[in-house]
Design brief:
Largest sheet: 2 strands, antiparallel
Strand order of the largest sheet: 1-2
Low-confidence stretches: none
Number of strands: 2
Strand content: 5-15%
Structural class: mainly alpha
Order of helices and strands: EEHHH
Number of helices: 3
Distance between the termini: 19 Å
């Protein structure tokens, strides 16, 4: 399953998202998100690590920045209030004449 953290979502990091799923799927996604490299920078440059790596697949640069992670953690604390506010807005919109199909999230 994929979750979007785009700026218009309830929980935002301004861009990006999150994947959940089976371990093998997530390992493959992690590999592709790191340019297809066999080892990420933390493992290569950590104490006792080695700079050596292999390019195992054509990949992409899909890592989240530290600023995005900090923003997401802050937003996560506020998520219940955001969801409650959205439900109130949807409820208020239901009473407007001519509005159809607006439902509060559950």
């Amino acid at each position: 399953m994929a979750f979007s953290f785009y700026a218009t979502k309830n929980l935002t990091t301004a861009e990006g998202g999150m994947l959940t799923g089976e371990h093998s799927f997530l390992e493959r996604a992690r590999l592709l998100s790191l340019h297809g490299l066999s080892r990420d920078a933390w493992k290569r440059y950590d104490k006792g690590g080695s700079w050596r790596y292999e390019v195992l697949a054509p990949g992409f640069k899909y890592n989240m920045t530290d600023i995005q992670a900090a923003l997401g953690l802050w937003q996560l604390r506020k998520l219940p209030a955001f969801q409650n506010g959205g439900a109130k807005s949807c409820s208020a919109m239901q009473s407007l004449p001519g509005r159809r199909g607006v439902r509060a999230a559950r």
